[in-house]
Amino acid sequence: MKLSKRLGMIASFVPGGSRVADIGTDHGYIPIHLVQEGIAKSAIAMDVRKGPLLRAQTHIKEAGLTDLVEVRLSDGLLKLEKNQADCVVIAGMGGELIIHILEEGRHLWDSITYWVLSPHSELYKVRKFLAEHEFSIGRETMIKEDGKYYSVMGVTRDSMVLEDRDQELGYRYGKHLLDSKNPVLKEFLQKEQIQIGEILKGLQSSGTKNAESRIEELELELKWNKEAQDAMQQTD
């Protein structure tokens, strides 16, 4: 099965020999690919909606993998028990929902050895949540597909220590992305800088009192954007 660029990157983060649970599996493409390629020993395709699960079930049957890929109706991680998987994939949803799923799945925190997370939004909140709950992002990359930017994180249960001066930048843009001078992040920062600048110009010319607080917020965002770009330009 040929995956999209985004799904392919997510699948590439899964360690070889894993037993995988894919949360919000949708069409079941990631579990099918992982088992077909011999990356995963087995997989559980999980979703809270019956429609996507029926589609996933059809695709799994067509691939001849019904013995190795199980379909399971579940709200997040609630129907996954300890020792049924050692790698969990949570992708294709907003950061707030990923945080909620992680919180509801506390019973698995110490038994899952690897987590692959790809939030579509609120990355700051996800990274901060992980750091505050003794998870560590050991690997992170950013890709661009169809004009949209996606981050993929490889996470383990371990303390993530960031220096105070690096915390805000790390939560906003990803320490590994900054340290590796990820070219897609660089492009994203440049685009973000232009967008913030354009919004600021419009607000400043409006002259309304309601715009003042928003202008302050955007000026702060612009400051962090500049710091991130400066950090990526520094040589080791």
TrEMBL record:
<protein>
    <submittedName>
        <fullName>SAM-dependent methyltransferase</fullName>
    </submittedName>
</protein>
<keyword id="KW-0808">Transferase</keyword>
<keyword id="KW-0489">Methyltransferase</keyword>
<dbReference type="GO" id="GO:0032259">
    <property type="term" value="P:methylation"/>
</dbReference>
<dbReference type="InterPro" id="IPR029063">
    <property type="entry name" value="SAM-dependent_MTases_sf"/>
</dbReference>
<dbReference type="InterPro" id="IPR006901">
    <property type="entry name" value="TrmK"/>
</dbReference>
<dbReference type="Pfam" id="PF12847">
    <property type="entry name" value="Methyltransf_18"/>
</dbReference>
<dbReference type="GO" id="GO:0008168">
    <property type="term" value="F:methyltransferase activity"/>
</dbReference>
